[in-house]
Amino acid sequence: MLTSLFRIAALLISLVLTNIACASNYAPQKVIYHVNYKDVSRIHATFGNINNHIAAVGEDNLDIKVMIHGPALEYFIDANDNEEKQMMLDSLRFQNIQFLICGNTLNGYHRTINDLYEVSEDDVVQAGIPGIIALQQQGYIYVRP
């Protein structure tokens, strides 16, 4: 467990240093990442993509949201009792990433936000796909790794 704590801490420090040292050549970006799969290794790879995105463009040049629906909801349920998942989510939130939760998925799983790790009412949208489309209409670029 300490090894994973050190890994997460090292990752956060490197991301902060990268953001400080890097002068971005990119214009500001608004992005909606779509996560609707259960495979934890794929979810972690997506979170790695998001960290790389932040490192390349710079936190101040990004507005990233992550739409969570379908089986991906289980990650947030499991995170209540899983410190590694908590640290992954916390490290992204620390970098101003907002996770959006599909209300239809919550209902389908017979869950409430109280069953999820660190989710508030403001993080819940009625439906995932219409939520993604609404963000695209606001200029967000759709990404589904």
Question: If you had to describe this structure to a student in words, what would you say it looks like?
Answer:
It is a single chain. The chain has 145 residues and is of the alpha/beta class. It has a single domain (2-143), classed as Hypothetical Protein Ychn, Chain: A, CATH 3.40.1260. 50% of the residues lie in helices and 17% in strands. It is built from 6 helices and 5 strands. It has a 5-stranded parallel beta sheet, with helices on both faces. Helix 2 (40-57) links the parallel strand 1 and strand 2 (62-68). Helix 1 (2-21) packs parallel to helix 2 and helix 1 packs parallel to helix 4. The longest helix is centred in the first third of the chain and has 20 residues, at 2-21. 25% of the residues are buried.
Concise summary:
With 145 residues, the protein is α/β, with parallel strands linked by helices. Helices cover 50% and strands 17% of the residues.
How are the SSEs placed, and which strands pair?
Blueprint: H1 2-21, E1 29-35, H2 40-57, E2 62-68, H3 73-78, H4 83-94, E3 98-102, H5 103-108, E4 124-125, H6 128-137, E5 141-143
Parallel strand pairs: 1-2, 1-5, 2-3, 3-4
Helix pairs in contact: 1-2, 1-4
Strand order of the largest sheet: 4-3-2-1-5
User: Which term fits the overall shape?
Assistant: globular
Q: Report the helical percentage.
A: 40-55%
Distance between the termini: 28 Å
Task: Give the number of helices.
Answer: 6
The CATH topology name reads Hypothetical Protein Ychn, Chain: A
| Total number of strands | 5
In the CATH hierarchy, what is the superfamily?
DsrEFH-like
Q: What's the CATH C level?
A: Alpha Beta
Q: What's the story with the biggest beta sheet?
A: 5 strands, parallel
Which series of helices and strands comes N to C?
Answer: HEHEHHEHEHE
Please state the CA-atom Rg, rounded to the nearest Å.
Answer: 15 Å
SS-based class: alpha/beta
Mean pLDDT, rounded to whole units? 88
Quickly count the domains.
1
Instruction: Report the uncertain regions.
Output: none
The appropriate CATH architecture is 3-Layer(aba) Sandwich
Percent range for β-strand residues: 15-25%
